[in-house]
Amino acid sequence: MLSNAVKAYENVDRNTSSGRETEARVLTQGALKLMEVQQNWDSPARREMLDSALRYNQRVWSIFQVELCRKDHPLPKQIRLGLLQLSRFIDRRIFDTMAFPSPEKLDIIIRINQNIAAGLRGSPS
Questions:
Q1: Domain ranges of the chain
Q2: Which residues, 6 or more positions from 86, have their beta carbon under 8 angstroms from its beta carbon?
Q3: CA-CA distances (angstroms) from residue 54 to 77, 78, 90?
Q4: Please, which residues have CB within 8 angstroms of residue 83's CB and are 6 or more apart in sequence?
Q5: Is residue 91 within 8 Å of 63, Cβ to Cβ?
Q6: For the whole prediction, is pTM greater than 0.70?
Q7: Which residue from 58, 49, 119, 114 is spatially nearest to 91, judged by alpha carbons?
């Protein structure tokens, strides 16, 4: 399943925009999905919405992890390491939220996604 996500990500990237804009777009989409869950926390469909939003974000960050571990990745090593540490934090938060759901736990993932997306676009967050 992850390989399908990677292939889809690569196809969209090649065909529609720069890699940075694609990364910003998928991070923004991840934040929007989590915000929608927060806004509909009392919905009977919350569990399905939460699972879907968390899985989406987990796939996005897993793809970033794979890319950041490439030996030929163009980012400086210290920045890559910092982003990998951030991705581990997000992994832990996602698993914690799956086990013990709470709308407040989504805030930090939303903010991180939004801030990194803004940085990729070169705009203030």
A1: 2-121
A2: 112
A3: 28, 27, 10
A4: 64, 68, 75
A5: no
A6: yes
A7: 58
Tell me: the pLDDT tens digits for 52-99? 999 999 999 999 999 999 989 899 999 999 999 999 999 999 999 999
Query: What is the number of residues in the chain?
Result: 125
Other beta carbons within 10 angstroms of residue 92's beta carbon come to 10
What are 23's two structure tokens? 């990364």
Angle at 81 between CA 104 and CA 68, to 5 degrees: 90
Contact in structure between 98 and 54 (CB atoms under 8 Å):
yes
**Fold entry, domain 2-121:** Four Helix Bundle (Hemerythrin (Met), subunit A) (1.20.120)
